[in-house]
Amino acid sequence: MGCSLRVAWDEALTTYNFGPQHPLAPVRVELTMALARELGVFDAPGVSFADVEPAGDDLLELIHDPGYIAAVKRAGSTLVPDDPYCLGTPDNPVFPHMHDAAALISGASVAAASAVWNGEAEHAANIAGGLHHSMPKSAWGFCVYNDAALAVAWLLEQGAKRVAYVDVDVHHGDGVQTMFYDDPRVLTISLHESPLTLFPGTGRPDETGGPNAEGYAVNVALPAGTNDRMWLRAFHAVVPPLLHEFQPEVLVTQQGCDTHALDPLANLMLSLDGQRQTYAALHRLAKETAGGRWVLLGGGGYELVQVVPRAWTHLLAEAAGVPLAPDTATPAAWRDFALERTGEHAPLSMTDGRSPDHAPFEEGLDPDDPVDRAIQATRKAVFPCHGIDPTL
Protein backbone atom coordinates (compact mmCIF):
# COMPACT_ATOMS: atom_id res chain seq x y z
CA MET A 1 0.00 0.00 0.00
CA GLY A 2 1.56 3.29 -1.08
CA CYS A 3 1.64 6.43 1.02
CA SER A 4 0.22 9.73 -0.06
CA LEU A 5 3.11 11.83 -1.40
CA ARG A 6 2.95 15.30 -2.97
CA VAL A 7 6.07 16.28 -4.92
CA ALA A 8 6.68 20.00 -5.41
CA TRP A 9 8.33 20.22 -8.80
CA ASP A 10 8.94 22.55 -11.69
CA GLU A 11 11.76 22.29 -14.22
CA ALA A 12 12.61 25.91 -13.35
CA LEU A 13 13.87 24.72 -9.95
CA THR A 14 17.08 23.79 -11.76
CA THR A 15 17.74 27.47 -12.55
CA TYR A 16 19.31 27.85 -9.08
CA ASN A 17 22.74 27.62 -10.65
CA PHE A 18 25.97 29.21 -9.42
CA GLY A 19 27.83 28.30 -12.59
CA PRO A 20 29.68 25.36 -14.19
CA GLN A 21 32.57 25.28 -11.70
CA HIS A 22 30.42 25.38 -8.58
CA PRO A 23 29.89 22.10 -6.68
CA LEU A 24 26.14 22.68 -6.16
CA ALA A 25 25.25 21.65 -9.70
CA PRO A 26 21.53 21.49 -10.55
CA VAL A 27 22.10 18.44 -12.75
CA ARG A 28 22.00 16.37 -9.54
CA VAL A 29 18.33 17.29 -9.11
CA GLU A 30 17.61 16.74 -12.79
CA LEU A 31 19.16 13.25 -12.63
CA THR A 32 17.27 12.43 -9.43
CA MET A 33 13.89 13.27 -10.93
CA ALA A 34 14.75 11.34 -14.10
CA LEU A 35 15.82 8.24 -12.16
CA ALA A 36 12.74 8.29 -9.92
CA ARG A 37 10.57 8.66 -12.99
CA GLU A 38 12.28 5.79 -14.85
CA LEU A 39 11.93 3.50 -11.83
CA GLY A 40 8.19 4.21 -11.58
CA VAL A 41 8.30 5.98 -8.22
CA PHE A 42 5.95 8.70 -9.46
CA ASP A 43 3.51 6.08 -10.75
CA ALA A 44 2.92 4.72 -7.26
CA PRO A 45 -0.60 5.06 -5.81
CA GLY A 46 -1.10 8.37 -4.02
CA VAL A 47 1.78 10.23 -5.67
CA SER A 48 0.90 13.64 -7.13
CA PHE A 49 2.64 16.86 -8.09
CA ALA A 50 2.16 20.31 -6.59
CA ASP A 51 2.19 23.53 -8.54
CA VAL A 52 5.10 25.74 -7.50
CA GLU A 53 5.05 29.53 -7.21
CA PRO A 54 7.93 31.76 -6.09
CA ALA A 55 7.80 32.90 -2.49
CA GLY A 56 6.78 36.57 -2.38
CA ASP A 57 8.52 39.16 -0.26
CA ASP A 58 5.92 38.97 2.51
CA LEU A 59 6.56 35.25 2.82
CA LEU A 60 10.34 35.55 2.68
CA GLU A 61 10.20 38.23 5.37
CA LEU A 62 9.01 35.60 7.84
CA ILE A 63 12.71 34.72 8.15
CA HIS A 64 14.76 37.19 6.06
CA ASP A 65 15.42 40.88 6.54
CA PRO A 66 13.82 43.10 3.85
CA GLY A 67 17.17 44.76 3.19
CA TYR A 68 18.73 41.40 2.44
CA ILE A 69 15.92 40.44 0.05
CA ALA A 70 16.42 43.74 -1.78
CA ALA A 71 20.17 43.03 -1.97
CA VAL A 72 19.55 39.60 -3.52
CA LYS A 73 17.31 41.16 -6.17
CA ARG A 74 19.87 43.87 -6.86
CA ALA A 75 22.79 41.44 -7.12
CA GLY A 76 20.88 39.15 -9.48
CA SER A 77 20.11 42.12 -11.70
CA THR A 78 23.46 43.93 -11.69
CA LEU A 79 25.73 40.90 -11.07
CA VAL A 80 27.71 43.10 -8.70
CA PRO A 81 28.94 41.41 -5.48
CA ASP A 82 27.54 42.69 -2.19
CA ASP A 83 30.06 41.85 0.51
CA PRO A 84 27.97 42.78 3.58
CA TYR A 85 25.39 40.20 2.48
CA CYS A 86 27.94 37.54 1.39
CA LEU A 87 26.72 37.78 -2.19
CA GLY A 88 29.48 37.33 -4.75
CA THR A 89 31.78 35.14 -2.64
CA PRO A 90 33.28 31.90 -4.01
CA ASP A 91 30.61 29.96 -2.11
CA ASN A 92 27.78 32.24 -3.21
CA PRO A 93 28.54 33.76 -6.62
CA VAL A 94 25.93 36.09 -8.03
CA PHE A 95 24.07 34.87 -11.11
CA PRO A 96 21.31 36.35 -13.29
CA HIS A 97 17.80 36.23 -11.78
CA MET A 98 19.21 34.85 -8.53
CA HIS A 99 16.25 36.09 -6.50
CA ASP A 100 13.75 34.43 -8.82
CA ALA A 101 15.51 31.06 -8.67
CA ALA A 102 15.95 31.14 -4.89
CA ALA A 103 12.40 32.35 -4.29
CA LEU A 104 11.07 29.48 -6.41
CA ILE A 105 12.89 26.92 -4.27
CA SER A 106 11.48 28.59 -1.16
CA GLY A 107 8.01 28.58 -2.65
CA ALA A 108 8.32 24.87 -3.42
CA SER A 109 9.19 24.06 0.18
CA VAL A 110 6.23 26.07 1.42
CA ALA A 111 4.02 24.27 -1.11
CA ALA A 112 5.21 20.97 0.37
CA ALA A 113 4.51 22.18 3.90
CA SER A 114 1.08 23.42 2.83
CA ALA A 115 0.15 20.08 1.29
CA VAL A 116 0.94 18.30 4.54
CA TRP A 117 -0.56 20.90 6.88
CA ASN A 118 -3.81 21.13 4.93
CA GLY A 119 -4.21 17.36 4.67
CA GLU A 120 -3.77 17.20 0.92
CA ALA A 121 -1.03 14.60 1.34
CA GLU A 122 0.50 12.63 4.17
CA HIS A 123 4.04 13.41 3.01
CA ALA A 124 5.44 16.09 0.69
CA ALA A 125 8.84 16.65 -0.87
CA ASN A 126 10.91 19.42 -2.41
CA ILE A 127 14.02 17.61 -3.52
CA ALA A 128 15.54 20.88 -4.80
CA GLY A 129 15.24 22.43 -1.33
CA GLY A 130 17.09 22.06 1.93
CA LEU A 131 19.21 25.22 1.63
CA HIS A 132 19.76 25.26 5.36
CA HIS A 133 22.72 27.62 5.82
CA SER A 134 21.49 31.06 4.81
CA MET A 135 20.96 33.53 7.62
CA PRO A 136 18.35 36.25 8.18
CA LYS A 137 20.61 38.91 6.70
CA SER A 138 23.10 37.04 4.52
CA ALA A 139 23.78 34.22 2.12
CA TRP A 140 25.93 31.43 3.50
CA GLY A 141 27.24 28.08 2.33
CA PHE A 142 25.68 27.90 -1.17
CA CYS A 143 22.34 29.07 0.23
CA VAL A 144 20.62 32.33 -0.73
CA TYR A 145 17.22 31.90 0.93
CA ASN A 146 16.64 29.37 3.68
CA ASP A 147 13.69 27.39 2.33
CA ALA A 148 13.91 24.85 5.18
CA ALA A 149 13.49 27.54 7.84
CA LEU A 150 10.78 29.18 5.75
CA ALA A 151 8.74 25.96 5.65
CA VAL A 152 8.97 25.75 9.44
CA ALA A 153 8.10 29.44 9.90
CA TRP A 154 5.11 29.07 7.57
CA LEU A 155 3.82 26.14 9.63
CA LEU A 156 4.10 28.23 12.79
CA GLU A 157 2.17 31.03 11.07
CA GLN A 158 -0.62 28.56 10.34
CA GLY A 159 -0.88 27.77 14.03
CA ALA A 160 1.43 24.77 14.48
CA LYS A 161 2.55 24.57 18.10
CA ARG A 162 5.27 21.93 17.74
CA VAL A 163 7.42 21.43 14.64
CA ALA A 164 10.45 19.13 14.64
CA TYR A 165 13.28 19.69 12.18
CA VAL A 166 15.79 16.87 11.70
CA ASP A 167 18.86 17.57 9.57
CA VAL A 168 21.04 14.66 8.42
CA ASP A 169 23.27 16.68 6.07
CA VAL A 170 27.00 16.31 6.72
CA HIS A 171 27.12 20.06 7.47
CA HIS A 172 25.52 21.60 10.54
CA GLY A 173 22.06 23.08 9.91
CA ASP A 174 23.23 26.40 11.29
CA GLY A 175 20.79 28.75 9.55
CA VAL A 176 17.69 26.87 10.71
CA GLN A 177 19.08 26.57 14.22
CA THR A 178 19.81 30.30 14.33
CA MET A 179 16.31 31.29 13.28
CA PHE A 180 14.57 29.18 15.93
CA TYR A 181 17.23 29.11 18.67
CA ASP A 182 14.97 30.74 21.24
CA ASP A 183 11.64 29.25 20.13
CA PRO A 184 10.44 26.19 22.08
CA ARG A 185 7.82 25.48 19.43
CA VAL A 186 10.64 24.21 17.19
CA LEU A 187 12.93 21.30 18.02
CA THR A 188 15.98 21.35 15.73
CA ILE A 189 18.17 18.24 15.59
CA SER A 190 21.30 18.18 13.45
CA LEU A 191 23.66 15.24 12.97
CA HIS A 192 26.79 16.40 11.18
CA GLU A 193 30.54 16.15 10.90
CA SER A 194 32.37 17.81 13.76
CA PRO A 195 32.92 21.58 13.47
CA LEU A 196 36.59 20.85 14.15
CA THR A 197 36.97 19.48 10.63
CA LEU A 198 34.15 20.92 8.49
CA PHE A 199 32.22 24.04 7.54
CA PRO A 200 30.44 25.92 9.06
CA GLY A 201 32.38 25.42 12.30
CA THR A 202 29.26 25.31 14.49
CA GLY A 203 27.01 22.62 15.88
CA ARG A 204 28.68 21.67 19.14
CA PRO A 205 26.68 19.74 21.73
CA ASP A 206 26.65 22.72 24.09
CA GLU A 207 24.62 24.75 21.54
CA THR A 208 21.32 23.78 23.15
CA GLY A 209 18.97 26.73 22.62
CA GLY A 210 18.33 30.21 23.98
CA PRO A 211 17.03 31.14 27.42
CA ASN A 212 13.44 30.43 26.44
CA ALA A 213 14.18 27.19 24.62
CA GLU A 214 16.98 25.37 26.40
CA GLY A 215 17.27 21.85 25.06
CA TYR A 216 15.41 22.59 21.82
CA ALA A 217 18.57 22.89 19.73
CA VAL A 218 20.23 19.47 19.50
CA ASN A 219 23.60 18.84 17.89
CA VAL A 220 25.40 15.56 17.33
CA ALA A 221 28.93 16.38 16.14
CA LEU A 222 30.48 13.24 14.67
CA PRO A 223 34.19 12.70 14.03
CA ALA A 224 35.57 12.48 10.52
CA GLY A 225 35.56 8.88 9.32
CA THR A 226 32.26 7.92 10.98
CA ASN A 227 30.80 4.95 9.07
CA ASP A 228 27.31 3.51 8.61
CA ARG A 229 27.34 1.46 11.77
CA MET A 230 28.37 4.30 14.06
CA TRP A 231 26.26 6.94 12.31
CA LEU A 232 23.15 4.80 12.69
CA ARG A 233 24.04 4.17 16.33
CA ALA A 234 24.21 7.94 16.89
CA PHE A 235 20.97 8.61 15.04
CA HIS A 236 18.99 6.03 17.00
CA ALA A 237 20.52 7.09 20.31
CA VAL A 238 19.33 10.68 19.94
CA VAL A 239 16.57 11.25 17.39
CA PRO A 240 13.82 8.74 18.31
CA PRO A 241 13.77 9.48 22.07
CA LEU A 242 13.50 13.23 21.48
CA LEU A 243 10.83 12.98 18.79
CA HIS A 244 8.75 10.60 20.89
CA GLU A 245 8.94 13.01 23.81
CA PHE A 246 8.32 16.17 21.73
CA GLN A 247 5.42 14.72 19.68
CA PRO A 248 5.61 17.23 16.78
CA GLU A 249 2.58 18.10 14.73
CA VAL A 250 4.79 18.04 11.63
CA LEU A 251 8.22 16.53 11.00
CA VAL A 252 10.42 18.50 8.58
CA THR A 253 13.64 16.82 7.47
CA GLN A 254 16.65 18.01 5.51
CA GLN A 255 18.09 15.06 3.63
CA GLY A 256 21.56 16.09 2.50
CA CYS A 257 23.37 12.99 1.21
CA ASP A 258 26.88 14.43 1.48
CA THR A 259 27.54 12.02 4.36
CA HIS A 260 28.45 9.48 1.66
CA ALA A 261 32.04 8.24 1.53
CA LEU A 262 32.39 9.44 -2.08
CA ASP A 263 31.32 13.01 -1.38
CA PRO A 264 34.19 15.34 -2.32
CA LEU A 265 33.46 18.05 0.24
CA ALA A 266 33.28 16.11 3.51
CA ASN A 267 34.79 13.29 5.52
CA LEU A 268 32.10 10.90 6.72
CA MET A 269 32.01 7.35 5.35
CA LEU A 270 28.38 6.36 4.92
CA SER A 271 27.17 4.14 2.10
CA LEU A 272 24.01 4.47 0.06
CA ASP A 273 22.66 1.52 2.05
CA GLY A 274 23.21 3.26 5.37
CA GLN A 275 21.51 6.38 4.06
CA ARG A 276 18.57 4.29 2.87
CA GLN A 277 18.14 2.93 6.40
CA THR A 278 17.97 6.52 7.66
CA TYR A 279 15.13 7.32 5.25
CA ALA A 280 13.15 4.33 6.48
CA ALA A 281 13.76 5.33 10.10
CA LEU A 282 12.57 8.90 9.52
CA HIS A 283 9.48 7.59 7.73
CA ARG A 284 8.65 5.41 10.74
CA LEU A 285 9.25 8.29 13.12
CA ALA A 286 6.95 10.56 11.12
CA LYS A 287 4.19 7.98 11.50
CA GLU A 288 4.90 7.27 15.17
CA THR A 289 5.35 10.83 16.40
CA ALA A 290 3.81 13.28 13.91
CA GLY A 291 0.69 11.51 12.69
CA GLY A 292 2.50 10.75 9.43
CA ARG A 293 2.93 14.44 8.55
CA TRP A 294 6.36 14.55 6.93
CA VAL A 295 7.92 17.34 4.84
CA LEU A 296 11.15 16.16 3.25
CA LEU A 297 13.68 18.41 1.58
CA GLY A 298 16.92 17.87 -0.32
CA GLY A 299 20.16 19.46 0.79
CA GLY A 300 23.86 18.90 0.21
CA GLY A 301 25.36 16.22 -2.00
CA TYR A 302 28.20 16.81 -4.42
CA GLU A 303 28.91 13.41 -5.97
CA LEU A 304 26.49 14.27 -8.73
CA VAL A 305 26.07 10.97 -10.60
CA GLN A 306 27.26 8.15 -8.36
CA VAL A 307 25.44 9.21 -5.18
CA VAL A 308 22.82 11.97 -5.23
CA PRO A 309 20.34 10.58 -7.79
CA ARG A 310 20.30 7.12 -6.24
CA ALA A 311 20.12 8.39 -2.65
CA TRP A 312 17.24 10.76 -3.26
CA THR A 313 15.38 8.29 -5.47
CA HIS A 314 15.48 5.88 -2.54
CA LEU A 315 14.19 8.73 -0.35
CA LEU A 316 11.28 9.51 -2.68
CA ALA A 317 10.42 5.83 -3.03
CA GLU A 318 10.41 5.42 0.75
CA ALA A 319 8.14 8.43 1.15
CA ALA A 320 5.84 7.09 -1.57
CA GLY A 321 5.49 3.82 0.33
CA VAL A 322 7.17 1.80 -2.42
CA PRO A 323 10.76 1.37 -1.19
CA LEU A 324 13.14 0.02 -3.81
CA ALA A 325 15.04 -3.20 -3.26
CA PRO A 326 18.74 -2.41 -2.87
CA ASP A 327 19.68 -4.64 -5.80
CA THR A 328 17.30 -2.84 -8.18
CA ALA A 329 19.06 -2.17 -11.49
CA THR A 330 19.33 1.40 -12.70
CA PRO A 331 17.50 1.69 -16.04
CA ALA A 332 19.69 1.75 -19.14
CA ALA A 333 17.79 4.78 -20.44
CA TRP A 334 18.70 6.68 -17.29
CA ARG A 335 22.35 5.67 -17.50
CA ASP A 336 22.42 6.90 -21.09
CA PHE A 337 20.84 10.19 -20.01
CA ALA A 338 23.40 10.62 -17.21
CA LEU A 339 26.24 9.97 -19.67
CA GLU A 340 24.79 12.49 -22.11
CA ARG A 341 24.34 15.18 -19.42
CA THR A 342 27.61 14.70 -17.54
CA GLY A 343 29.97 12.53 -19.59
CA GLU A 344 30.11 10.13 -16.64
CA HIS A 345 29.08 6.48 -16.48
CA ALA A 346 26.33 5.98 -13.89
CA PRO A 347 26.09 3.06 -11.44
CA LEU A 348 24.41 -0.17 -12.55
CA SER A 349 22.34 -0.73 -9.40
CA MET A 350 20.74 1.06 -6.46
CA THR A 351 23.12 -0.30 -3.81
CA ASP A 352 26.70 0.03 -2.66
CA GLY A 353 26.55 -3.62 -1.63
CA ARG A 354 26.50 -2.97 2.11
CA SER A 355 24.19 -4.36 4.82
CA PRO A 356 24.86 -2.01 7.72
CA ASP A 357 23.66 -2.70 11.22
CA HIS A 358 24.40 -1.12 14.56
CA ALA A 359 24.49 -1.98 18.24
CA PRO A 360 22.03 0.14 20.24
CA PHE A 361 23.79 2.75 22.35
CA GLU A 362 21.64 1.77 25.31
CA GLU A 363 23.42 -1.60 25.44
CA GLY A 364 26.59 0.06 26.64
CA LEU A 365 28.86 3.07 26.19
CA ASP A 366 32.44 2.64 25.02
CA PRO A 367 34.24 5.63 26.58
CA ASP A 368 37.20 5.13 24.23
CA ASP A 369 35.07 5.44 21.09
CA PRO A 370 34.88 9.03 19.78
CA VAL A 371 31.40 8.50 18.33
CA ASP A 372 30.09 7.19 21.65
CA ARG A 373 31.62 10.21 23.37
CA ALA A 374 29.84 12.49 20.88
CA ILE A 375 26.54 10.73 21.49
CA GLN A 376 26.89 10.97 25.24
CA ALA A 377 27.84 14.65 25.10
CA THR A 378 24.63 15.41 23.21
CA ARG A 379 22.42 13.27 25.43
CA LYS A 380 23.85 14.84 28.59
CA ALA A 381 23.39 18.34 27.17
CA VAL A 382 19.74 18.07 26.12
CA PHE A 383 17.98 14.94 27.39
CA PRO A 384 17.44 16.27 30.95
CA CYS A 385 15.69 19.34 29.48
CA HIS A 386 13.06 16.97 28.09
CA GLY A 387 12.80 14.79 31.19
CA ILE A 388 14.77 11.94 29.59
CA ASP A 389 17.49 10.13 31.49
CA PRO A 390 20.66 10.36 29.33
CA THR A 391 22.15 7.22 30.89
CA LEU A 392 19.33 4.83 29.91
TrEMBL record:
Determine the domain of life of the protein's source: Bacteria
Where is the segment annotated Disordered? 345-366
Pfam families assigned to the protein according to its UniProt record, in alphabetical order? Hist_deacetyl
Sorted alphabetically, the Gene Ontology BP terms of this entry are: acetoin catabolic process; epigenetic regulation of gene expression
Its UniProt pathway annotation is: Ketone degradation; acetoin degradation
What keywords appear on the UniProt entry?
A: Acetoin catabolism
Indicate the family of this protein.
Belongs to the histone deacetylase family.
Name-wise, this protein is Acetoin utilization protein AcuC
Query: Source species, please?
Result: Spinactinospora alkalitolerans
